[in-house]
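Project outcomes to date are best conveyed with an example. Our students and postdoctoral researchers have been running inverse folding experiments weekly, and each run begins with a structure described purely in tokens. The record below, which covers 378 residues, was selected by the lab manager from last quarter's runs and is presented without edits.
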């Protein structure tokens, strides 16, 4: 593996315990024990992911809210201090430049967390568009380690090393707390569909990863009684796909709009102005022609990206993400299809290795939300 790849604070831990892979220019763990046991640990109890490869930027200043309302689609004014929301940045044509979570730390201080593959491009986009606003845009990616503790026992695990009551932090809320005696910030967010937290170890530069390693090890120790598993990118992908969450570069990109992707809930067209508003308003008025759908395979075939989707002898789209679901024990996928075919219950065919395999259009997430996910019945 090339020595030019970037590494996170936890590289030595990963190198010694995980199967490594290249992802977005980083040397990252794809799995430790295995994708299926790691996936099921998160669905049934708790798992921890190193997500330090993601991008983190602080936006501060008197016009930070106005600036972020201009470059993102959601309503930043609705965010109160120590709350967060999911959002998109779009180009002028309404295409998605990235999806991310934005947290309001203080009245004039925000933290944006975006995808690893877009770290440089997103930062440049923010800097370029900030020039007419009284704001400071600061990339803090290399000075803050970031982990995701996910699963129904995530709160119980983290609470053992936190000095504040984590039960008071509701979904899409955040707060400061000491973790294993060190300054930390936690956000009740994640990319698995489950309850859990994203943990930020503040002021821990890559050159001196001691604090990051201390918090990581403390979480693993705290979660032992719950069977915690360190989880790699493999389980992260299968979990987010079961939850119906998009992967940038696969399911969304600058050729897809939030409305086509089923992310219209983050587009606030009542805002006075934001990049892409005109194009999205036009699309909303005229109606979308294609839509992101979930596909559940009816046989044993496993769909993969770029597999063709057919209906009545006609190709209607391509799979954008596809995998074997460890929870459902069958193949699942996302694809884009013309709106007339994007109807729950509709039967289609996926071309898997020159064979047409039957699938059914289903709603997201793929699993029973009364049994799994953050809204499960306790």
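After processing, the design step wrote out the following sequence:
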């Amino acid at each position: 593996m090339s020595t030019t790849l970037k590494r996170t604070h936890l590289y030595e831990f990963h190198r010694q315990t995980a199967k490594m892979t290249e992802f977005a220019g980083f040397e990252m763990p794809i799995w430790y024990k295995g994708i299926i046991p790691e996936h099921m640990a998160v669905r049934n109890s708790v798992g921890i992911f190193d997500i330090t490869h993601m991008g983190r930027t602080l936006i501060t200043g008197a016009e930070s809210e106005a600036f972020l309302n201009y470059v993102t689609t959601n309503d930043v004014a609705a965010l109160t201090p120590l709350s967060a929301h999911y959002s998109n940045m779009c180009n002028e044509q309404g295409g998605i430049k990235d999806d991310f979570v934005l947290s309001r730390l203080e009245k004039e201080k925000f933290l944006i967390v975006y995808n690893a593959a877009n770290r440089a491009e997103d930062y440049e986009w923010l800097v370029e568009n900030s020039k007419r606003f009284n704001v400071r845009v600061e990339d803090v990616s290399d000075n803050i380690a970031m982990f995701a503790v996910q699963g129904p026992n995530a709160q119980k695990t983290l609470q053992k090393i936190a000095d504040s009551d984590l039960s008071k932090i509701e979904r899409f809320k955040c707060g400061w707390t000491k973790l294993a005696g060190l300054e930390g910030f936690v956000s009740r967010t994640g990319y698995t569909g489950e309850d859990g937290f994203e943990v930020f170890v503040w002021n821990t530069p890559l050159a001196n990863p001691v604090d990051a390693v201390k918090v990581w090890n403390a979480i693993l120790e705290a979660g032992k009684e719950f069977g915690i598993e360190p989880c790699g990118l493999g389980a992260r992908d299968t979990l987010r796909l079961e939850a119906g969450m998009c992967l940038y570069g696969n399911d969304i990109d600058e050729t897809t709009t939030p409305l086509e992707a089923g992310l219209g809930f983050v587009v606030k067209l009542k805002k006075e102005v934001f990049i892409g508003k005109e194009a999205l308003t036009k699309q909303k008025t005229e109606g979308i022609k294609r839509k992101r759908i979930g596909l559940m395979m009816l046989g044993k075939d496993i769909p993969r990206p770029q597999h063709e989707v057919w209906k009545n002898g006609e190709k209607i789209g391509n799979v954008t993400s596809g995998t074997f679901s460890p929870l459902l024990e069958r193949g699942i996928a996302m694809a884009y299809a013309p709106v007339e075919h994007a109807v729950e219950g509709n039967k289609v065919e996926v071309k898997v290795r020159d064979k047409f395999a039957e699938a059914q259009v289903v709603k997201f997430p793929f699993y029973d939300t009364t049994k799994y996910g953050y809204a499960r019945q306790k």
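The mean pLDDT is 97. The helical segments are 11-17, 35-44, 64-71, 119-129, 154-159, 210-222, 233-242, 277-286. The training component of this project remains on track.
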